[in-house]
Amino acid sequence: MNQTQVADALHRARKHGTEPQSVAGVELDTDAALTIQLHVLDRFKAEGEALGGWKAALSSGTSRDMMGKDFRPFGYVLKSKILKSGDRVNRARMFQCRIEPELCVIMKAPLRGAALSAADARNAVGAIAPAFEINDIRTRPEWGRPLLLADGLAQWGIVVGAPVPVRDDLANTTVRFFENEKLIETATPGELMDDPFLSLALMCAVLDRFGLGLEAGQPIITGAFCRTAVNAANSYRAEFSGIGDVSVTFD
Q1: Domain that holds residue 190
Q2: Arithmetic mean of pLDDT, 230-238
Q3: What residue ranges in 50-167 does DSSP mark as E strands?
C-alpha cells in the first residue's frame, strides 16, 4: 500500500470505529507515519471537521520513550471530539475503547519551534484542567508501532473539566480514578511522567518538522496517569489533587 491508501484506510477506521485490517504488514518509519496521520486529519477537514487540539504522546509510564529517547510525537484531536465534564459517549462508535486520566493544558499564546524549553512552554500556557483521554484501539500491536502513530496513537477524543491557574510540579499530582463511583486506582506518576511543560516543548520540536505548532486556545493533553478498558456502559470520574475532577459516562 502507498501512503494515500494507508491514509484512506485509517480515515475510514477512525470515522466508523473499525479495525483497518488492510494496513496489516505495512512498514513505515516515524516520519512517514506522522505524515500519514496529518493526511488523515486533512481528510476529516475536507469533510467539515476542524482541528481542536493535540495530545503529547509517549510521555509517561511504560510508553515513555517507547519510540526513542525524548521522542514525544503528536496526535491530533478533532474539535467535535472535545467534550465537557459530565458528557455522555456512545461506546458503540468505537472498536476498542480505553479511558485515561490526564492533565490538559490550555494554551494562551502560540508555541512553535524546534528548540523550546519547558519554561518557554509554561509561559505559553494559560490554564490547566483535569481531563480524560478516550482512546479507540484500532490497530494491533503486531502491526508495529509506526502504524499506531499513523493512526493518531489511537486518539478518539478528550473530556475536559474546569480550568484552574497554572502551577508547577504537575507530575507529582495524585489522581484518584473511579469507575461507577468505585475507586479502581490511585496514581502519582512522579519520575515516571515528563513534566507536562517539557512534553509540550518536545512535541513542538516534532510539530515543527511539519511546519506546525500550537495555537492559542487549544487544549493539549500531556500523558496518562493510569488507564482502563471500557467494556460496558460505565461512568468514570477522576480527582486530580489540587486541581479538580472530571467525569464522563458511556452508554
Answers
A1: 3-250
A2: 96
A3: 51-56, 74-78, 82-84, 88-89, 97-107, 125-136, 155-160
